[in-house]
Amino acid sequence: MYSKPLTNLFLAMSVAWAIATPAMAEDEYNVTNGFTIDGVPLALRGVDPVALSTLNAVASGAATRTVIHDGVAYYFSSETTAAMFEADPGKYLPQYGGFCAFAVALGKKLDGDPRYADIVDGKLYLFVNAAVFAKYKEDPEGTISKAEEIWPTIHHAAVGSL
Protein backbone atom coordinates (compact mmCIF):
# COMPACT_ATOMS: atom_id res chain seq x y z
CA MET A 1 0.00 0.00 0.00
CA TYR A 2 2.77 2.51 0.97
CA SER A 3 5.96 2.75 -1.01
CA LYS A 4 9.17 1.54 0.61
CA PRO A 5 10.91 4.95 0.28
CA LEU A 6 7.99 6.66 2.01
CA THR A 7 8.02 4.10 4.81
CA ASN A 8 11.77 4.52 5.24
CA LEU A 9 11.39 8.31 5.32
CA PHE A 10 8.70 8.05 7.99
CA LEU A 11 10.88 5.69 10.04
CA ALA A 12 13.90 8.01 9.76
CA MET A 13 11.82 11.02 10.79
CA SER A 14 10.41 9.13 13.78
CA VAL A 15 13.88 8.15 14.97
CA ALA A 16 15.15 11.72 14.50
CA TRP A 17 12.24 13.11 16.51
CA ALA A 18 12.78 10.57 19.30
CA ILE A 19 16.44 11.52 19.53
CA ALA A 20 15.82 15.27 19.24
CA THR A 21 13.11 15.52 21.91
CA PRO A 22 15.42 14.86 24.89
CA ALA A 23 18.10 17.05 23.31
CA MET A 24 15.63 19.94 23.08
CA ALA A 25 14.58 19.38 26.68
CA GLU A 26 18.21 19.73 27.74
CA ASP A 27 18.33 23.27 26.34
CA GLU A 28 14.86 24.26 27.56
CA TYR A 29 15.27 22.82 31.06
CA ASN A 30 18.16 22.44 33.44
CA VAL A 31 18.56 18.67 33.54
CA THR A 32 21.07 16.15 34.81
CA ASN A 33 23.38 14.60 32.22
CA GLY A 34 22.11 11.24 31.04
CA PHE A 35 18.61 9.88 30.95
CA THR A 36 16.18 8.18 33.30
CA ILE A 37 14.97 4.64 32.70
CA ASP A 38 12.11 6.25 30.74
CA GLY A 39 14.66 7.68 28.30
CA VAL A 40 14.13 11.31 29.27
CA PRO A 41 16.42 13.71 31.17
CA LEU A 42 15.99 14.27 34.91
CA ALA A 43 15.23 17.73 36.34
CA LEU A 44 16.04 19.22 39.74
CA ARG A 45 18.70 16.58 40.42
CA GLY A 46 15.91 14.25 41.53
CA VAL A 47 14.60 16.64 44.19
CA ASP A 48 10.81 16.76 44.71
CA PRO A 49 9.60 20.00 43.03
CA VAL A 50 6.47 20.23 45.21
CA ALA A 51 8.42 20.10 48.48
CA LEU A 52 10.97 22.55 47.08
CA SER A 53 8.50 25.08 45.70
CA THR A 54 6.09 25.06 48.64
CA LEU A 55 8.33 24.48 51.66
CA ASN A 56 11.76 25.37 50.22
CA ALA A 57 12.72 21.90 51.45
CA VAL A 58 15.18 19.69 49.59
CA ALA A 59 13.41 16.33 49.66
CA SER A 60 14.89 13.57 47.52
CA GLY A 61 12.45 12.03 45.13
CA ALA A 62 12.44 8.41 44.02
CA ALA A 63 12.57 6.93 40.55
CA THR A 64 9.58 4.79 41.52
CA ARG A 65 7.54 8.02 41.73
CA THR A 66 8.34 9.69 38.42
CA VAL A 67 6.17 12.11 36.52
CA ILE A 68 7.19 13.11 33.01
CA HIS A 69 6.21 16.62 32.02
CA ASP A 70 7.16 18.28 28.74
CA GLY A 71 9.81 15.64 28.00
CA VAL A 72 11.49 15.92 31.41
CA ALA A 73 11.34 13.52 34.37
CA TYR A 74 10.63 14.74 37.90
CA TYR A 75 11.02 12.53 40.97
CA PHE A 76 8.75 12.79 44.01
CA SER A 77 9.12 11.92 47.67
CA SER A 78 5.51 10.75 47.97
CA GLU A 79 2.49 9.78 45.91
CA THR A 80 0.75 12.88 47.31
CA THR A 81 3.33 15.32 45.96
CA ALA A 82 3.39 13.48 42.61
CA ALA A 83 -0.40 13.84 42.35
CA MET A 84 -0.22 17.52 43.30
CA PHE A 85 2.33 18.09 40.54
CA GLU A 86 0.30 16.19 37.95
CA ALA A 87 -2.75 18.30 38.78
CA ASP A 88 -0.93 21.62 38.21
CA PRO A 89 2.73 21.32 37.08
CA GLY A 90 3.15 25.04 36.43
CA LYS A 91 2.50 25.78 40.08
CA TYR A 92 5.58 23.80 41.15
CA LEU A 93 8.09 24.15 38.33
CA PRO A 94 11.10 26.38 38.90
CA GLN A 95 11.29 29.55 36.87
CA TYR A 96 13.53 29.73 33.79
CA GLY A 97 13.48 25.97 33.27
CA GLY A 98 15.39 25.48 36.52
CA PHE A 99 18.42 27.44 35.37
CA CYS A 100 20.07 29.87 37.78
CA ALA A 101 17.93 33.03 37.94
CA PHE A 102 20.96 35.25 38.51
CA ALA A 103 22.68 33.80 35.42
CA VAL A 104 19.52 34.26 33.34
CA ALA A 105 19.55 37.95 34.34
CA LEU A 106 23.04 38.03 32.77
CA GLY A 107 21.89 36.23 29.61
CA LYS A 108 23.34 32.82 30.55
CA LYS A 109 21.96 29.38 31.36
CA LEU A 110 23.86 27.97 34.33
CA ASP A 111 22.98 25.10 36.62
CA GLY A 112 20.30 25.80 39.20
CA ASP A 113 21.02 23.97 42.46
CA PRO A 114 17.97 23.08 44.58
CA ARG A 115 20.03 23.77 47.73
CA TYR A 116 20.08 27.46 46.77
CA ALA A 117 16.47 28.37 46.17
CA ASP A 118 14.10 31.20 46.92
CA ILE A 119 10.32 31.43 46.70
CA VAL A 120 9.02 34.86 45.70
CA ASP A 121 5.31 35.46 45.19
CA GLY A 122 4.76 31.72 45.02
CA LYS A 123 7.42 31.22 42.32
CA LEU A 124 10.53 29.09 42.73
CA TYR A 125 13.92 30.48 41.72
CA LEU A 126 17.16 28.47 41.75
CA PHE A 127 20.77 29.62 41.92
CA VAL A 128 24.08 28.02 40.99
CA ASN A 129 25.87 28.26 44.36
CA ALA A 130 26.01 30.00 47.75
CA ALA A 131 28.04 32.98 46.50
CA VAL A 132 25.62 33.72 43.66
CA PHE A 133 22.65 33.23 45.98
CA ALA A 134 24.15 35.78 48.39
CA LYS A 135 24.65 38.24 45.52
CA TYR A 136 21.01 37.72 44.44
CA LYS A 137 19.85 38.43 48.01
CA GLU A 138 21.35 41.95 47.73
CA ASP A 139 18.68 42.85 45.12
CA PRO A 140 16.15 40.06 44.57
CA GLU A 141 13.58 42.28 42.84
CA GLY A 142 16.16 43.70 40.44
CA THR A 143 17.55 40.26 39.60
CA ILE A 144 14.10 38.79 38.96
CA SER A 145 13.04 41.81 36.92
CA LYS A 146 16.13 41.57 34.71
CA ALA A 147 15.75 37.78 34.37
CA GLU A 148 12.11 38.24 33.30
CA GLU A 149 13.28 40.68 30.63
CA ILE A 150 16.09 38.42 29.34
CA TRP A 151 14.45 34.97 29.56
CA PRO A 152 12.26 35.28 26.43
CA THR A 153 15.39 36.01 24.36
CA ILE A 154 17.35 32.97 25.62
CA HIS A 155 14.58 30.51 26.49
CA HIS A 156 14.95 28.50 23.28
CA ALA A 157 18.69 29.09 22.84
CA ALA A 158 21.08 26.18 23.17
CA VAL A 159 23.04 26.29 26.41
CA GLY A 160 26.35 26.20 24.56
CA SER A 161 25.44 29.18 22.38
CA LEU A 162 25.17 31.66 25.24
Written account of the structure:
The chain is of the alpha+beta class and 162 residues long. The protein is 46% helix and 19% strand. The chain is built from seven helices and six strands. It has a two-stranded antiparallel sheet. The chain has a two-stranded antiparallel ribbon with strand order 3-4. Strand 3 and strand 4 form a beta hairpin. It is globular and about 40 Å long. The termini are far apart. Residues 5-24 have low confidence and may be disordered.
Short description:
The chain is an alpha+beta fold.
What keyword list fits this structure?
162 residues, alpha+beta, two-stranded antiparallel ribbon, 7 helices, 6 strands
Largest sheet: 2 strands, antiparallel
* Strand line-up across the major sheet: 1-2
- Molecular shape: globular
Mean pLDDT: 86
Q: How do the helices and strands line up, and which of them pair or pack?
A:
Layout: H1 4-28, E1 31-32, E2 42-43, H2 49-55, E3 62-69, E4 72-76, H3 79-87, H4 89-92, H5 101-105, E5 113-120, E6 123-127, H6 130-138, H7 140-154
Antiparallel strand pairs: 1-2, 3-4, 5-6
